[in-house]
Amino acid sequence: MATLSSIGNRDMGIIVKEHCAALWAAVDAEGDDRKRGYAAARRFPVPCFMGPPGEGKSATIESALDEVCDAWYTFRASDSQPSDLGGWDIPSKDDDGRLIMVNHSPDWIPTDDSARIGILFDEIGQCPNAIQNCLTQLFRDRQLKRTRLGNRVVMIAAGNRAADKAGSVNLHTALGSRVIRYSVTSRLSEWQDWALANGVDASCRSYLQWKPEHFQTFDPTQPDEPFACPRSWEYVSSAMGAYGNSARQLAAIEGLVGSGVAASYWAHRRVYSGLPSWADVQADPTGVDVPTDAEPGACFAMSALIGDAVKGLPADQAEPALVYADRFKKEEYKVFILIQCVGATDGTILQSATGRDFMTRYRDIIIDATAASAKTSGKGGAS
To answer: Domain limits at 306?
Structure first.
């Protein structure tokens, strides 16, 4: 069976925002004609992002919707009932006293044509057939029973694949033919950018740069075992601060990423005690000790520590980081420090003379390293 080409989280966020913009432009082009606006909105199939668990699909989509929509909702398809979508049929009487059934639609469904609202239908692969049937009608007609979505409401779907054995089932063909299916696999280079910006512990970032094969270790043949993924590495970072006792820290990390990966990461953390501080680097970037090529874990650890240290600094104060980086023998360490510094300073470090010189000398290597990371990271597959 052929597999879909995969996309990363960054592309997923862009696709969500482009889909919103295209649908709104098509509806806006019809002016106040509600019928033609409805027809324009129906022409857009629902983007559906599928991938292994823990890839950051929901978080990425919600972030994109939050950026462009007036408001957004997440509908958890896995624990919902048909009445959550189609409402309830309540017995009543008409004006002549005859018994009729009146539908009462859920109050959360947005019907305002002017509101730019996003709805994420999450865990779509884990919902029962009854919900799939409702979504088939909603995705096709933008309507359930007598309740019609507002013309500018955008629908997005996400979930795990049946092959992941994460409680998911195959989408039935009627629903599957009404969505655009995207296969999502997280990419380490994108996660590193996000992790630096969101305060993920430097030990996690440097460890994964050293051991990219441990970024995503999900194995669908062993669904009961803990596995590493973008989500669990974020939790590892949190666990380091939540448990003061090292034995409890290690136990928590084993429960998040598995015992083998946890033992390797724990050994990597011990490297930090022998590294120079940022104050040492800043004071004497040409003289302070540099880890040797025989210590790859220490080299990556030092790179991540520098990324944390220069975060938010003006270019002139961050400049010693690149002077220090240039003393590493392997170019991959120099490039990783530069990438960390660029992200931490929002690119202002490239405005310094040292930054411009560094970028000029290692431009091709930086491009090659970024391309290689996009191809090789996210094995096992994607927040």
So the answer is: 189-376
Predicted TM-score of the model (pTM) = 0.78
Using the predicted structure, report yes or no on whether residue 381 has a pLDDT greater than 50. no
Q: Residue 10 burial by CB count (10 A; 0-12/13-18/19+): exposed, middle or buried?
A: middle
Where do the DSSP E strands lie in the chain?
A: 6-7, 46-50, 71-76, 88-93, 99-104, 117-122, 143-144, 147-148, 154-159, 179-184
Domain finish residue from 160, 185, 210:
185
When pLDDT is averaged across residues 171-199 and rounded to a whole number, the result is: 89
Residues 206, 183: Cα–Cα separation, whole Å: 27
CA distances from residue 16 to 20, 67, 75 in whole angstroms, order as listed = 6, 10, 16
One domain for residues 104 and 225: no
Banded pLDDT at 10 (limits 50, 70, 90): very high
Does residue 1 lie within any of the structural domains? no
What does each C-alpha distance from 195 to 12, 92, 117 come to in angstroms?
17, 56, 28
- The residues that bridge with 157 in the sheet, in sequence order, are 48, 121
| Number of domains within the chain | 2
Last residue of a domain, one of 158, 185, 212: 185
Cβ density class 154-174: b for 16+ within 10 Å, e for less: bbbbbbbbbebebebeebeee
Residue 174 sits in the same domain as residue 268: no
Of 365, 345, 367, 364, the closest CA to residue 355 belongs to 345
Q: How many helices (H) and strands (E) does the chain have?
A: 16, 10
The strand pairing partners of 88, in sequence order, are 104
Q: Are residues 102 and 199 in the same domain?
A: no
Query: What are 123-182's pLDDT values in tens digits?
Result: 988 888 888 888 999 999 999 887 899 999 999 999 987 766 655 567 788 888 889 999
Q: Where are the alpha helices (DSSP H) in 243-294?
A: 246-257, 259-270, 278-283
